[in-house]
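Practice record 12: protein with flavin mononucleotide.
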Amino acid sequence: MNDILLVCYSRTGNTRLVADELVRLTGWPLGLIHDTRPRAGASGDWRCMLDAWLRNRPDYRYEGPALERFEHIVLLTPVWMKGLAAPLRTFLGDHDLSRQRISVICTQGGRGGFNAVEEIARLTRQVPSPVQILLQSEVLGGLSPQRLEDFVVQVLASSTYQRDRQRPAWLSPVAS
Ligand SMILES: Cc1cc2nc3c(=O)[nH]c(=O)nc-3n(C[C@H](O)[C@H](O)[C@H](O)COP(=O)(O)O)c2cc1C
């Protein structure tokens, strides 16, 4: 069973490029968070900033597999105003992911990614791992395959680690 799901919000396509590349590398299924009210143009920019400043929880539409079917969820999000993109905030408020394993990829212009990861940690009540923060320039300049491959290896390793930790106590330890 494939138990890793990618969930991506992307307003202008950068984060989606990373998600698509991960799908190509791994074949993991992809769920998409869409804005219900389009954020195109300058008025869209302002609404993004306002939602970020006020920590709003705007409406969204999720298109993808049911989250409950997956043990491990990789969240992909842009950084807004040195924090989390607002639609992902609403999404995480609506779904209790505290029992699933969480990993994160952020794309950003320059700074703020770690604040976004901190908010994801609060909303999912766990420390996400692995975490990768990518610059928009890296994404648009052609992603380094090595960086994404390293991320995939870490996701797979953390899933195996989690499964091993959950082995029933009466089983013998996993051979190393
Ligand atoms: C409203 C808004 C606020 C942003 N704030 C930041 C920021 O604080 N720090 C940063 O590094 N990039 C910031 N960015 C740049 C985006 O994080 C970056 O372009 C990202 O790759 C966009 O992803 P997307 O194309 O998937 O929407 C901001 C972009 C927008 C639209």
